[in-house]
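Deliverable D4.2, example record:
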Amino acid sequence: MWIIAGPNGAGKSSFAGKYLDDLVAAFPNDFGPGGLTKLNADERTAALRREFPDAAQAMLNLRAARETDAEVKATIAADRSFSVETVLSTPKYRGDVLTAKDRGFRIGLIYVSLHPPQLCSARVAERVLKGGHDVDSEAVVRRYHRSHEQLRWFATHVDYLWVFDNSQNQLLTPPALLATRFPDRPLRLVQRGLNPAVDRALTDLPAVS
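Output generated by the structure prediction step:
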C-alpha cells in the first residue's frame, strides 16, 4: 500500500507520482505480479464530470471520494498492491493502513510539502490557469495544517517514508528530501529548518535520528 500525500498544490501528481513510478520500474518484483493499481479521487471526479456534465461539483467530489475509499478497501481485501493519492487532511486512511498491515502489506508514504502554506494556494491558482481543478484558498490553507497533523501518525506506522519539500521551482531545483524511514530503522530527519510544518510534525516523534 503506497500513499502519495501532501497539501493541495504541493506536487503529489507531478513529482511524487513520478517518484513512485521510478521505484516500480527499479524494483518491479517488490510490487507484486499484478503491478500497482493506482487510485485517485481527482481522476475519478474528472471521469464523473464527463459522465454528468451538469452535476454540482461538490456532489461529484463527494461521490468520487466515497468510490475511491471503497476501492481502497476492496483492493486491500484482494491483497493487491496499490497506490492512493490524498491530501491526508483527515484520519480516514488510518484504519486501512492497520488493516493492510494485518494482512501482511508493507506500507509506503511519499509526502510532499510546501512552505509557507499560502504557496499552496498560489500553486493551485497556477494549476487552474493550465486547465486543472480549483480548490478554495481558505480550504487549501486549512487542509495544509490538518495534513501535517496527520503526517505525525502516518510517519510512525509506515515501513517506507520519504518526505520532500517542493517549495522551490521544480523545473530549476529538485524537491529537497527532508525525512526518510525504512523497515526496522528509525525515522531519520535529513534536513531541519527548511519546512517548519514538517519539523513540527516529525521532530519530537519517538525513534527519530
